[in-house]
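Fold this: Cytochrome c oxidase subunit 8B
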Amino acid sequence: MVLPAASRLLRTALRFRVAPVANVASKPAKENISGRDQTIAMTTMFITILGPSGWILAHLEDYKKKE
């Protein structure tokens, strides 16, 4: 039976694990991250992800105009 190339590739990928699915560690972290560092990281992530989305939603009516 001849399978299409995509099917053969998928079958091969499922048979052999090419990359690890997740890096699971059973030990505690090597370095503790302070609350200040966590706050800075989370704030940066939220601004980076939600900032542009908020801008678009706030200016949605401007984008709808056909001038």
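Residues 35-58 form the longest helix (24 residues). The two ends are 59 Å apart (CA to CA).
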